[in-house]
Every structure is written in C-alpha cells, then in structure tokens.
Amino acid sequence: MTGLLTLFYKELLRFWKVSLQTVLSPLVTTLLYLLIFSHVLEAHIQVYPGINYSSFLIPGLVMMAMLQNAFSNSSSSLIQSKMNGSIVFMLLAPLAYWEFFAAYVAASVVRGAVVGLGVGLAGLWFAPLSLAHPLWMLAFAVLGCGMLGAAGIISSIWAENYDQMAAVQNFIIVPLTFLSGVFYSIHSLPPFWQAVSRVNPFFYLIDGFRYGFFGVSDVSPRLALEIVAACFLALSLATLLLLKSGFKLRK
Asked: Averaged over 139-160, what is the pLDDT?
C-alpha cells in the first residue's frame, strides 16, 4: 500500500500548493452565486415550506462546487502528467492499476470536501442551515466526489490535449451541474424539462444531498442513492478497465 499512499499524498500536495487557484477561487465564485441569487430572489421564491431561498440554495451550491472540483482535480492532474511526460514515472513504478485509481479518486474526494466545507461554512453567514440526516448528506457527498473523480480520469485518458479536456469540463460537466436543480426545484419546471432533469445523474446527487439538510426532497432519497451508487460503480468499473488496458497511457 506504500505506492498508493505516496501517490495519494502527492496528489494532495499538488492541489494544496496552488490552493489559491484550486480552493480559494472556486470558493469565491460559488459565494458570488449565493450573494447574487439570494439577494435578487430571496423575497420572491420559497421552494419548500418554512425554508427560505438562501437556505435552499446553499446545499445545492456546496454540491455543485464539490462535483466540479472533484472532476477538475483528477482530470487536470492526469492531463498535465500526460502533456509534460511525467506520467512515465508513475507507469514505471510498481503500482497496480487499482492503486492508481484509488489514489486519484481519494484525492478528488478530499479536494471536493475541502471546497464544499468552505462554501458551507461561508454560507452560514447568509442563512441558517440544519442537518436533518447527516449520514445521507455524507453518503451523497462521498459518492458524488468519487463519481466525478472517476469521470475526470476517464476524460483525461481520452483527451489528447488541454483543449479537449477543457471541452469536457465546459460543455458536459458545467452544464450538467447547472441544470441539476441547484437553483430551483424540478417541480417548478414544465413536464418535458422535469423528464429531462430525471435523466441527469447530477440532479439525484444534489437532491439527495439537500435531503440530508432539510429532510425533504423532490424524489425519494433511497431511489436517488441507488442511482448515484450505480453511476459511481459503472464509472469506477470503466476507469479500472481503461487503466488496466493501458489505453492511451501505455499504448
């Protein structure tokens, strides 16, 4: 396990040494969303009875920040290693493919958790929050960050340059997070867009995560957890198969 722990530690140091970019920048960006939307819509929208809009917004923004940063952590690290050639040192090391996977995903979970915790604590200045079901909240947070960490590895293996990697981030990950119920309940949408939202796995992550705070949700939290767990397992299996085959890494 020494190789796994060493690679995990290396990945933690990598994002922490540039914490101004990897932690503080997304924290400030997310808080700006909270400041603008809560100020403009606070008096006009109430999604759940007894829960003001700012309180409703905070868990969604926390999860959105966690997902985007978990994806960025694994994808940016691996694509940089491919582009500058340092990937060869990890491929030559006596690391099993599953250790490679575990280290990158675990580091993504840590970065997502650090950013999410920062957003959540700063959000308390805007509105109060409760934790109705902390274990549900924790389960969705870990599965969500793990899922996006695995997705980041897959994307960076496929990508051959920074432009392709940025395209995945800008045209897939960001739209899916924004259109997942962060700023609204899907029950406020027309039937067609409600149906579209239900095929977005990020919706179940955010809805289930929000359930952990308020005890209310748009769909059954058990169903949401099953869907999220299935997505995580599918992405993890696909990542492990790619790493084992050496696709675009060893070959």
From this structure: 96
| Cα–Cα distance, 249 to 97 (Å, whole number) | 12
Q: Angle 213-218-224 (CA atoms, 0-180°, nearest 5)?
A: 80
Domain boundaries, the chain: 2-245
Residue 72 C-beta-side C-alpha neighbours within 13 Å: 18
The Cα-based distances of 203 to 184, 197, 207 in angstroms read 11, 7, 6
Task: Write the pLDDT tens digit of every residue in 42-59.
Answer: 666 667 777 888 888 999
Q: How many CA atoms lie within 13 A of 165 on its CB side?
A: 22
In this prediction the pTM is 0.93
Residue 90: count of CB within 10 angstroms of its CB: 16
